[in-house]
Design a protein that fits this description.
Number of helices: 6
Helix content: over 70%
CATH topology: Four Helix Bundle (Hemerythrin (Met), subunit A)
Largest sheet: none
CATH class: Mainly Alpha
Strand content: under 5%
Radius of gyration: 20 Å
Distance between the termini: 31 Å
Number of domains: 1
Shape: elongated
CATH architecture: Up-down Bundle
Order of helices and strands: HHHHHH
Number of strands: 0
Length: about 200
């Protein structure tokens, strides 16, 4: 299911950001920059996956959630802005000649800014997982067969128009291809980051 695929990406992004913050706490600013760059390379790829594969599909289905594609796009823009601010602050901090106390205080200030980015990401991910991805999976649920305990989804599916994609076989193929494309795209990006992290 799409929600499981994207949720795994969210977990991997959090881990990369956590490694950046660990290096920051240890005052290893160059390593903190590297992990922050790894995070952002993957974050950009994740956004591209959503914008190229998921948003167009989400726009085609009948939605029950109050959020549409424009909200997710605006959040992507805000995430990019916050990231740039953090990079600028980290670059500034790494170039300064500060005593240990001053470094610690500036790290605290930077971590406070990073909390804003983490909070936005968490809310964004939650909306995706609980709304967009769930609705996409629900719209295509019958293409992969039913799952025990999905009576509510079955009832919703009968009441909603199906995604505009033709016959059952075509829909099943499209859904599987969508999942495969997302998995392969992500695998390439995360593998490249892991190679440079070793």
């Amino acid at each position: 299911m799409l929600v499981e695929i994207i949720k795994q990406q969210h977990l991997e992004l959090r881990e990369l950001f956590m490694r950046h913050q660990e290096m920051l706490l240890q005052m290893q600013f160059e390593d903190a920059k590297i992990w922050l760059e790894h995070f952002y390379v993957c974050q950009k790829a994740h956004m591209k996956i959503e914008e190229s594969y998921l948003f167009p599909e989400f726009a085609k289905i009948e939605r029950t959630s109050k959020w549409d594609v424009s909200l997710y796009e605006k959040e992507h823009d805000k995430i990019n802005q916050l990231y740039e601010n953090i990079v600028n602050d980290l670059n500034w901090l790494s170039e300064q000649k500060l005593d240990q106390s001053q470094k610690r205080r500036n790290i605290i200030a930077l971590l406070d800014k990073e909390k804003t980015l983490k909070g936005l990401n968490e809310h964004h991910e939650e909306r995706e997982e609980e709304a967009m991805l769930k609705e996409l999976d629900d719209a295509y649920m019958d293409v992969g067969g039913t799952t025990p305990g999905k009576e509510e989804v079955m009832l919703r599916r009968e009441q909603q128009p199906r995604a505009e994609s033709g016959t059952e076989a075509e829909r099943a193929k499209k859904y599987k291809q969508l999942q495969l494309d997302i998995k392969l795209t992500w695998a390439e990006v995360i593998a490249s980051v892991r190679e440079t992290s070793i």
